[in-house]
Amino acid sequence: MKFTISSLTLVSLLVLIAPSKAAAFTAPDRGRLLLTGGVSALDGAGGGGLSTWALIGGLGTRDSFGIQARHTTFMTRDYRLTSPGVSLGLFNRLEWSYARLRLDETGGALEGARIEMDSHGLKLRLFGDAVLDQDQPWPQVSVGIQHKRNRGIQGLEGAGLRKATDVGARRNSDVEYYIAASKLLLARSVLLNGTVRFTRANQFGLAGFGGELGDSREAQFEGSIAWLLRRDLAVGVEFRSKPRNLALDREDDAHSLFAAWAPTKHASVTLAYANVGPIVSGNATTPLNRSDQRGVYLSFQLGY
Amino acid sequence: MRTYRWKQRSAVVLTAWTLALGLHAGSASSAGAAPPSLYEQLGGLPAIGKVIDTFLGVVGTDGRIAPSFANANMPRLRTLLIEQVCEATGGPCRYSGRDMKTSHNGMGITELQFNALAEALYLAMEREGVPYALQNRVMALLAPMHRDIIGP
Known about the structure:
Chain A is built from one helix and 14 strands; from the N terminus they run H-E-E-E-E-E-E-E-E-E-E-E-E-E-E.
């Protein structure tokens, strides 16, 4: 139902912006500068690895479009996250994205379990051009909506756990909203991003939405700073806060160090070291896995 | 507990932004003792001349933009580009051409072409040995011209 609304929004926006551009809408132009579309964030939308940015994914200009596909893996001591995703950027104005997230528990109390989630997103650039408006103080600002659907838990049927709601979440799917600001300070070779996300997702939605400790959307922050070292190479830090709704999970904020390298306009590799805090830590009466989950995050992206 | 987490978060976010803004402001505050201008750091007119020569060579081989310059008076264009970069970077030149809006009016320059020019200039500066951070400072001065150059 909610995804239908997203689709309708997409269609109506296309109807609004497409006619004037129809003449140029023939092929992707890859016309924006290298790395100025960001890479693909965990949730699927264009951004860094952890955080979503205001930039429209891909390198299509205002007259064109771009399509991207990515594959991301994140390995921690007890978990392996794999995530393929695709996105479409239109007229440097609108971005559609889809990602599947698959979390395999390779160790710890819930070894053998697998959780999958779908994430559909739409992002609309409201105003500003983070790259070209170098003489203006305002950033590029975008708003976005993401529909996340947890597809359930496999491997713990014996314990009666099949859905996120079986571990305390209030719902298995949800819609979240965000507003993002990005500014390239070209004279400093620095890219700044800040995002406020209204969400009740537990562990990005992999542990459902809402819980015993809270079931309303809260403002959570995402921030990142990237230093451009070369035309094809950026390194940076990211931070992303997460709500804490589940009695069985002392969820904590996530942060990372990353390097993104784009050898061509058609390919990029992002390597990061991320710490997303404990996942399903348990609590005082039921301790499960209190270790911070940190490890190497690797994402390959192709675009046309 | 919640309050603590919010404070912690706010602290991290504030620290990050302060750090970034500090870096941003750093150059301004350390600029007290008349630092060399960007023009001087680039190597003055001889270096800018080389960059523009290389730039025009790159432009001539880029199918996205070469046609736009097919009928241009190249020596005149070269002079104007040198004047423009020289003046923008704080050098002792005066741009003697028509303003960007007038000179590109009706040409229907696309964002693709504007960015292709930027890429050509990046490439030219790289080939002429201009450090990347300086390349970006030059670009930061020229990028705002997009409003006057790109057609509606």
